[in-house]
Amino acid sequence: MADSCLGPPSISKASPPSPLLRPPPPQLLFPFPSFPKPIPRPLVLSMASLHCSSSPSSSISNSSPRLSQPSLLVFSGGTAFNGVVEELKQLTTRVAHVLPVSDDGGSTAEIVRVLGGPAVGDIRSRCLRLSDQSNAEALAVRRLLGHRLPLDPKDAKSQWYDIVEGEHSFWKGVSKPYSETIRAFLVYFQNEILRRPNESFCFSNGSIGNFFFAGARIFFQSLDAAIFLFSRVSDIPAESLVLPVISTNDRLTLGCELWDGTIIRGQNEISHPTNGFMQPIDKGCSSVPALPSRIKRVFYMSSEGGNSLHEVFPMVNASVLDQLSNVDCIVYAMGSLFTSVCPSLVLRGIGEIISSRNCPKVLLLNGTHDRETSGFSASGFVTSITDTLNRKYGDPDSCLENLPNQYINTLLVPKDGQIPIDVQCLTSQGIFDVIMVESLCDPKVGVIFNPKSLIDTLANLIGRYMSTNVMKD
């Protein structure tokens, strides 16, 4: 029986004071040379409507005249979609990456615990993936900001002091304007830690990029300003946007309600519980215990709250709504459904705009099950996204009643994936465009999309819609 058609199915147990003086604002000098933007593959405009069909095995023909780059908005977390970011640049750099700010695992959790504020790990991760790699200095900056400290706390602290004092070999290849800019915010981050003598900060497995990001956010008192600075330091294309779904300086806590009434507090506790231990998060196939029942909904709660009575309703970032209203294609990325994608969808205003758009609205289906979606079929993913966008189980005064195909009109499926494709249920949801895409087998996470095939398929899909709209006009 398809899991989207009836009530809440169960999960098999076998499933897995006074501030210090601020340092003077650094001069932001960006010496990276400008390089020509990659020419996107021309879009195929004659692709017929597909029903459980296969993506083209060959790359998109370069014989057609070049078209303007399409614009995309991608709802994702910081890990799964990163693997296709490089290939996506070959299609377009006009992408708005919408990311949650509720992660509370790894070094992000330690920053939030001691310094407060929103989680920046997913944003930092995407910024690094989008960063320039065209010359030696760009690579040196990327290597520095992408570095993680050792697991051993003493070794980590020792290496951190070498880096913050400018003595580590990681500074080799980074010019003076860059090193002074980056180091200024690392020093500011260190000063903020020292101001809190009652909180012992653990540097184990800490991300230098996260520390830089946190220092910039606290200095500017603005998450958007920190993203702007990081984007310029890592030389992200101006038309590529990294947008927090909520623009805030406050700590955000994600909660979920299970169908059996259980409330789980914290994103990491929902998806990859570590029993309170400070350790790297394994986001691949793991032996984490199964949830006692399926997830009914996700919601935001106050930092001190422990149940649904402490639910809060943060405002969505206005820039996200603006992008949603204008892009050529909306993508729900693969990854952790309830902790990476749904935290962006549950906010008021998101469902209203998506349902009103006439454009490709594409779900990239996972290739394997995880703790959050054990036992799901394809229609189960669609139902969960629909219920989240409709805010079905939230505030009754803000619920929507839109149909699934007003939010999703195309499903891209990795070949040989483990998620059952229940065509009849998808058809009953009004989804007829199901496209099979070539896949790869990753030893850590299992079946994933072949990046090139995925982007080729997206290009064809967007081209088909653009061609149809041109003919209508």
From TrEMBL:
Residues 1-23 are annotated as: Disordered. It comes from the Eukaryota. Gene3D superfamilies: CofD-like domains (3.40.50.10680). This is Maternal effect embryo arrest 18. It comes from Salix suchowensis. The lineage of its organism: Eukaryota, Viridiplantae, Streptophyta, Embryophyta, Tracheophyta.
